[in-house]
From TrEMBL:
Belongs to the peptidase M20A family. Its cofactor is Zn(2+). GO terms for biological process: amino acid metabolic process. This is N-acyl-aliphatic-L-amino acid amidohydrolase. It comes from Brassica napus. The keyword Cytoplasm applies. The lineage of its organism: Eukaryota, Viridiplantae, Streptophyta, Embryophyta, Tracheophyta. It is found in: Cytoplasm. Gene3D superfamilies: 1.10.150.900, 3.30.70.360, Zn peptidases. Keywords: Cytoplasm, Hydrolase, Metal-binding, Signal, Zinc. Zn(2+) 1 binds at H94, D127, E189. Residues 202-313 form the Peptidase M20 dimerisation domain. Binds 2 Zn(2+) ions per subunit.
Length: 432
């Protein structure tokens, strides 16, 4: 009896040791990806693609690299399904990350340091190298379990999302290659949740990036000028501030999600005449301008907001003008996030089977590559399996805990298995 008990203990320890080793290897691969410098504006895309291709090779996935724009490689991997007539699954992620201020970080943002609590600090740990690696690790687990997909599963690693995605996902979606894939559903990035439930996004706010310019009389700084450039710009900034405050009040009152209000943030303020020591102090500038990042939810009348912009925030009567740097004026596209959509049902149930829970579907407060797929008529959900974690996208000390990362892989195991096993054909783009 004692020998049997001893044998069972030894076996259990071996299993635990193997699981621990596997977990360490999984985390190590994640850290390796995080350490690749894909920071805008000079991301090392080729190094990232080489690393991802090495992972694809270890999983025997089909691989092809395309450059829709020179110097910006797009990697497409394929896990072949048994029924090519069924619309495929596309798991999308971007390889680039935003810049950082190294001095504001506790640990270097490209070292992927893991502290004593198991928190991994790195740019891209939440946005969104974590998700790209979770796709791959989930497939690794599914293959080890003997699972074979019915639908083909594609993994898309696109460049340039952080600067608009025009040379990345947009070019990919416009290509003959994408049209040939017969994609039925796309999963892309979401946001971390501070609670136990996972956030899911079925649409997003439209970005308006614009510059408001004001002109006025130049001259000596000792003279009082009526309708000076800076005075006119400050009037507009105050009007915008009041509008912003009204939107903030809606958010702070509760019951309204961030993706349901208009966000307005000033990105820069430019005025004055430069000098070797700073600015000329006795010269009234003839021009002043401010840049704004505005995000419009699908529920807002964008035409009415544009009238406000032209008539109130940048009126020609005050020698003001507006220049759009980016503007999406198309009708906002939403993916059905209720039980009428089988993709939603499968996602919700798969998360539940993995021990998690989805919160009420939301409008993504910013912009992601998912919009390009929706524009092509393909349903898309934004989903990052990160719970109990503050959202630190584009922030200092972006991190993801080891435990949360590993748990997210199991969530994607459940989702990919559910999606890739779904055999009903009349389910693809009509569900958008």
């Amino acid at each position: 009896m004692s020998r049997l008990l001893l044998a069972q203990v030894v076996l259990a320890l071996c299993i635990l040791s193997a699981a621990a080793d596997d977990g360490e290897a999984i985390v190590s691969r994640f850290q390796e990806y995080l350490r690749i410098d894909t920071v805008q504006p000079k991301p090392d895309y080729y190094k990232a693609v080489d690393f991802l291709n090495s992972q694809a090779k270890s999983l025997s996935l089909e691989s092809q690299t395309n450059e829709f724009v020179k110097g910006k490689p797009h990697l497409l991997l394929k896990w072949v399904g048994s029924d090519p007539t069924l619309p495929a699954i596309l798991l999308n992620s971007h390889t680039d990350v935003v810049p950082f201020e190294e001095s504001k970080w506790t640990h270097h943002p490209l070292h992927a340091h893991m502290d004593n609590q198991g928190d991994i600090y790195a740019r891209g740990s939440q946005d969104m190298k974590c998700v790209g690696m979770q796709y791959l690790e989930a497939i690794r687990k599914l293959q080890a379990s003997g699972f074979h997909p019915v639908r083909s599963v594609y993994l898309s690693f696109v460049p340039d999302e952080e600067i608009g995605g025009h040379d990345g996902a947009e070019k990919f979606v416009e290509s003959h290659l994408f049209k040939s894939l017969n994609v039925g559903i796309v999963l892309d990035e979401g946001l971390p949740s501070p609670s136990k439930s996972y956030r899911v996004f079925y649409g997003e706010r439209s970005p308006w990036w614009l510059v408001i310019k004001a002109k006025g009389p130049p001259g000596h700084g000792a003279k009082l000028y009526d309708n000076s450039a800076i005075e006119n710009l400050l009037k507009s900034i105050e009007s915008i501030r009041l509008f912003r405050a009204s939107q903030f009040d809606l958010l702070k009152a509760g019951g309204t999600a961030e993706g349901d209000v208009v966000s307005v943030n000033m990105a820069f303020l430019k005025a004055g005449t430069p000098s070797p020591t700073g600015f000329v102090m006795n010269l009234q500038p003839s021009e002043a301008e401010a840049g704004f990042d505005i995000r419009i939810p699908p529920s807002v009348d964008s035409e009415a907001l544009e009238r406000r912009l032209v008539e109130e925030w940048a009126p020609a009567a005050r020698n003001m003008s507006v220049e759009f740097k980016q503007k999406h004026s198309e009708e906002p596209l939403l993916t059905a996030a209720d039980d009428s959509n089988p993709w939603w049902r499968l996602l919700k149930n798969a998360v539940k089977e993995a021990g998690g829970k989805t919160s009420k579907p939301e409008i993504f407060p910013a912009s992601t590559d998912a919009r390009y797929f929706r524009m092509a008529g393909v349903p898309a959900f934004g989903f990052s399996p990160i719970s109990n974690t503050p959202s630190l996208l584009h922030d200092h000390n972006e991190y993801l805990s080891r435990a949360e990362y590993l748990k997210g892989i199991d969530v994607y195991v459940s989702i990919i298995k559910a999606y890739a096993s779904y055999e009903i054909k009349s389910d693809s783009r009509d569900e958008l």
